């Protein structure tokens, strides 16, 4: 996928604690007053210890009682933080939520803490700018395979490059730069274009010596002349021959890194070649040979891909995605939005935002888990529709979606690369 800009950021990993501390504000003082219509006094900050298995139920109970959850943290993180600082703090009054028994809590004053923020990946584990534009790595094309099937639109290629002659390595979710051969209309060398990596760190051949891209040939009508214009770098890559040498820079990017937590929930929202980083995630999670290469990362969580394309023939990596779904039905969900073949509830074209709207309540519930990460990659136009769909789900819980999304971003659980 072509990625015109990669923003920095930290990856995150959620600790394995199974008890979480909720900070709640505005909670009614007695659960028995839930059915009263008269105004009642509400609390300041209260703290509730919640077992992992009851997180959704407790959130619903807090909402019914008029409360607003302002932070969620693993209990062990709270203890570690208090032991690490010599600064005196007011100890919170903590109540434990147990099955079948709503917790009673008392107000207290304390310093407001952010929502769960797990430790980012160690800096040395995320390589950045090993090769720069003034001294790029020169690698050979090993293969260039078409991805668009019969009935599909446009040209999309899966291209694999040899890395065996240098030290270019990367992790899932990063991008590399490609400098097209030749010069521009002013006689100057072309500027690099960034593309999301579509392979795992071990490469498609599992020998740590290749990197793969998923590239669509850019094609559009010139607004004044009406002539068809083709993208410089995408055309160069889509028609490149195996054995050709290519100038490569990078890797770059920390915004889209996959969490190390094998129990995480990973929501992936993709359009077109935005599938590239998600292919890398899914291969790392589910491919047998990949799992054998990664004994410390055996994915047991839930991965859900919502994939928007114009035609069935444009479902990139379709056979492999559906094979994973068949082999791991409890761990991988695959939802298509095929705009020119399917209709939404209003009779119009089915775009990815309509699928998100259909599943918004379920997606919302999943996002309440502190180890859920949501990724969005593809056309920038998808962002507004997805926000709209999720806003409806959030409003049902009395939550402002925009603020909630900002909090997820702050906690490194909301990851976006659109163009």
Strand order of the largest sheet: 8-7-12-5-6-9
Mean pLDDT: 81
Helix content: 10-25%
Q: Report the CATH architecture of the largest domain.
A: 3-Layer(aba) Sandwich
Strand content is: 25-35%
**Structure summary, number of beta strands:** 17
Question: Describe the biggest sheet?
Answer: 6 strands, antiparallel
| Rg of Cα set | 24 Å
The number of helices is 10
Number of domains: 3
CATH class of the largest domain: Alpha Beta
Give the low-pLDDT segments.
6-17, 29-43, 78-120
Structure classification = alpha/beta
Shape: globular
Question: In words, what does this structure look like?
Answer:
The structure is a single chain. Helix content is 22%, strand content 25%. Strands 8-7-12-5-6-9 form a six-stranded antiparallel beta sheet, with helices on one face. Strand 10 (219-221) and strand 11 form a beta hairpin. It is built from ten helices and 17 strands. With 419 residues, it is of the alpha/beta class. The chain has three domains: 19-96, Dna Ligase, domain 1; 123-252, Elongation Factor Tu (Ef-tu), domain 3 (Beta Barrel), CATH 2.40.30; 265-418, Rossmann fold. Helix 7 packs parallel to helix 9 and helix 8 crosses helix 9. The model is unreliable at 6-17, 29-43 and 78-120 (pLDDT under 50). The N and C termini lie close together (10 Å).
């Amino acid at each position: 996928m072509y990625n015109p800009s990669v923003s920095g950021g930290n990856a995150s990993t959620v600790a394995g604690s199974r008890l979480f501390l909720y900070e709640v504000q505005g909670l009614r003082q007695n659960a028995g007053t839930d059915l009263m219509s008269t105004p009642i006094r509400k609390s300041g900050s209260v703290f509730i210890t919640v077992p992992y298995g009851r997180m959704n139920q407790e959130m619903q109970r807090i909402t019914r009682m008029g409360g607003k959850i302002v932070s969620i943290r693993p209990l062990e993180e709270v203890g570690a933080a208090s032991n690490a600082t010599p600064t005196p703090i007011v100890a919170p009054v903590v109540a434990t939520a147990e099955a079948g028994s709503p917790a009673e809590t008392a107000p207290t004053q304390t310093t407001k803490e952010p929502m769960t923020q797990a430790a980012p990946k160690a800096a040395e584990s995320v390589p950045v700018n090993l090769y720069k534009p003034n001294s790029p790595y020169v690698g050979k094309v090993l293969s260039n395979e078409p991805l668009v099937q019969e009935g599909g639109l446009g040209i999309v290629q899966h291209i694999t490059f040899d890395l065996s002659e240098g030290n270019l390595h990367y992790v899932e979710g990063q991008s590399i730069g490609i400098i097209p051969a030749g010069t521009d209309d002013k006689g100057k060398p072309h500027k690099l274009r960034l593309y999301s990596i579509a392979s795992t760190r071990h490469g498609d051949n599992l020998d740590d010596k290749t990197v793969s891209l998923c590239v669509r040939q850019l094609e559009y009508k010139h607004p004044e002349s009406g002539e068809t214009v083709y993208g410089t770098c995408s055309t160069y890559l889509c028609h490149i021959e195996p054995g050709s040498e290519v100038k490569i820079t990078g890797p770059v990017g920390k915004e889209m890194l996959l969490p190390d937590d094998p129990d995480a929930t990973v929501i992936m929202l993709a359009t077109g070649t935005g599938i590239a980083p998600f292919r890398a995630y899914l291969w790392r999670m589910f491919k047998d040979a990949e799992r054998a290469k990664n004994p410390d990362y055996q994915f047991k969580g839930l991965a859900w891909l919502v994939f928007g394309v114009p035609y069935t023939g444009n479902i990139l990596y379709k056979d492999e995605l559906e094979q994973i779904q068949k082999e791991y039905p409890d761990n991988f969900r695959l939802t298509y939005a095929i705009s020119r073949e399917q209709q939404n509830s209003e009779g119009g074209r089915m775009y990815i935002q309509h699928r998100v709207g259909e599943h918004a309540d379920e997606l919302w519930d999943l996002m309440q888990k502190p180890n859920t990460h949501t990724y969005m990659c593809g056309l920038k136009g998808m962002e507004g529709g997805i926000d709209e769909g999720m806003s409806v789900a959030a409003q049902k819980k009395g939550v402002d979606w925009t603020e909630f999304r900002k909090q997820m971003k702050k906690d490194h659980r909301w990851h976006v690369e659109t163009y």
